[in-house]
Amino acid sequence: MIDVKSNRKIPFLCFVLLTFLSGCAKDRSMNPSPDGEKVKIYIKMPEDLELRSMRVMYRSAVCQRVTYDGDGRPERVDGHNGFEVPLQRREGDLYGANLFVDGGGPCEWRLSNVMFGMTYRDPSRFGENVLVGGGGGVIVVFDHNNPQLSVGRRVAVEGSELKIVKDYYLWLNERYTGGYVKRASLSGCGSGYITYEARQARNVYFEPVFHPEFVVTSVAPKKHAVGDFIKFFYPDGTVESDPEGRPNFKKMQEIRLRAEAKK
Known about the structure:
Layout: H1 4-24, E1 38-44, E2 49-51, E3 54-68, E4 74-85, E5 88-91, E6 94-100, E7 102-104, E8 109-120, E9 131-132, E10 137-141, E11 154-156, E12 161-175, E13 181-187, E14 194-197, E15 203-219, E16 230-233, E17 239-242, H2 249-262
Parallel strand pairs: 1-15, 9-13, 10-14, 11-14, 12-15
Antiparallel strand pairs: 1-6, 2-8, 3-4, 3-8, 5-6, 7-8, 8-10, 12-13, 15-16, 16-17
């Protein structure tokens, strides 16, 4: 026997489903005004380093999405639209890109953050199987949202000009657990990405100052053992163990400055 009451619900359910599907098809394209306000990115890249692709994130309060907290409760947050933007060579070792603050379109996209950085260009000079490591990442946030990758140090900056000039050292690290791996990474102040909260910034300049003649190496324990940490071999001949698993940046700075003072 057919349940007439149940059968009457079918058209209503179809209507709800079609409405939901049509909402998913919302135009999320960007359409910035040609004369709109821009953020100008400039990066000065040393010859020993190589630029990574710059990741750009726009967000929208119009085209929101639903996320769930740890208790499974829904929460509406700004929608996102992320993509890679190539950095064009300006002149010599200077690269750059111009980004619209207002991305336009039906979603009214707004520039949220950018991620960029560099890696060591030629790890093979230290061995055929040496891999490219991390380090040297920067995030600049232009709005109230957290970046999609939120690790490392955070710095609040006021004003339209953001100038970032930081020292970096080469870090050769060897690991045995899970299979032998050797990487050529970059060691700077802090770990992971440095995040700058710079909502008014419209000119961003980044200059990594690389010191290739000062190299720190590390060797991880071959087996996990309590109290057995990674050993770091510094260019002045000292050896230290560190539970944090990263080179001592302050020590590298002191070693370099002492060496330069003797010249």
